[in-house]
Amino acid sequence: MTTVQSGSGSMVRRILLGSQLRRLRESKGITREAAGYSIRASESKISRMELGRVSFKERDVADLLTLYGISDDAERSTLLGLVREANIAGWWHGFGDVLPSWFQTYVGLEESASVIRSFESQFVHGLLQADEYSRAVIELGHPDASAEEVERRLDLRHKRQKLLSGEDAPEIVAVMDEAVVRRSFGGAGVMHAQLRHLVEVSHQPNVTVQLLPLEFTGYSAGASGTFTQLSFPESDVSDVVYVEQLTGAMYIDKRDEVDQYHVVMEKLRTDSLSPAATRERLNGILRAM
Predict the structure, then answer these.
(1) Among 10, 29, 176, 242, who pairs with 228 as Cys (CB 3.0-4.6 Å)?
(2) Which CATH number covers residue 42?
(3) What is the mean pLDDT of residues 16-30?
(4) Are residues 110 and 197 in the same domain?
């Protein structure tokens, strides 16, 4: 596959280009070490390129295509054009002052995804947060942040949330432990607005919200923690699971590991309230507030 849908972001273009370079190299029986030598780079650099985890230099890709025996002008032109598209900076790069490098990768993947499935045990997913709830969470996580920084972080979240109503809006499946909506951030007024927002957004055709109820007493598949699974419209781009940690994040793309997370997500959805029952539960909490 050598084309990318118009809605795809630079991050997915990078992953797609890397996977194509890997297949071309393997088809010729060339080692990563030999490929690296041809462009004056290390074997690990070739590995990172093929995983789409570094930017590409057009000259390096041109040299690799020559090494792999790609001489057809049209094929070379398509792949080199993909280099230029992959290196286009996304809008989120303008938030580098408040966005750690490891989360920039996630925002790029989120922007390109066609399906976003998540399980949350602490907070409402960022895409579904109401303004004052977002502010409360940001201030909790960054207690020393200036008012200006808090506003920058809110602006970043607003821009991410435009995905929900965009022309090519992804499918969102948000599963949350019920404790998330019972835990008060910012006070009763903030939580009331957040729950109301969840009810409203859950009516969108591309958004599914489900609660894992407090009364569930079996072993929860969510015991392993919060995670987000992203799927993409390109058949050549595999699913990625994002697991956030205190000072960084893991991006899991090995098929067998991703499949395990898929099984966990399906189990969570089965154990959770249905979307309709979730709305009823949220409305019940609202009435009791």
Answers:
(1) 242
(2) 1.10.260.40
(3) 92
(4) yes
- Do 67 and 209 lie in one domain? The reply is no
Last residue of a domain, one of 86, 114, 147: 86
pLDDT band at 133 (very low <50, low <70, confident <90, very high): very high
Enumerate residues 6+ apart whose C-beta is below 8 A from 213. Answer: 178, 272, 273, 281
pLDDT given for residue 4 in this prediction:
33
What are the angstrom distances between the C-alpha of 212 and each of 114, 154, 204, 242? 24, 28, 20, 20
Which has the closest alpha carbon to 237: 27, 11, 6?
11
- Please name the residues in contact with 195: beta carbons below 8 A apart, sequence gap of 6 or more: 181, 282, 285, 286, 289
Number of domains into which the chain is organized = 2
What DSSP designation does 289 have? -
58 φ/ψ angles, rounded to the nearest 5 degrees: -60, -40
User: Which residues of the chain form beta strands (DSSP E)?
Assistant: 115-120, 171-177, 207-212, 227-231, 240-244, 249-252
Could you tell me the residue range of the domain that residue 227 belongs to? Answer: 91-288
The pLDDT value recorded for residue 221 is: 65
Same domain, 45 and 75: yes
| 177 and 134 together in one domain | yes
159-to-85, 102, 155 alpha-carbon distances in Å: 21, 18, 6
Residue 1 lies in a domain: no
- Residue 185: phi and psi, rounded to 5, are -120, 120
Q: How far is CA 110 from CA 27, 148, 159, 228, in A?
A: 31, 25, 12, 10
Q: Are residues 136 and 221 in the same domain?
A: yes
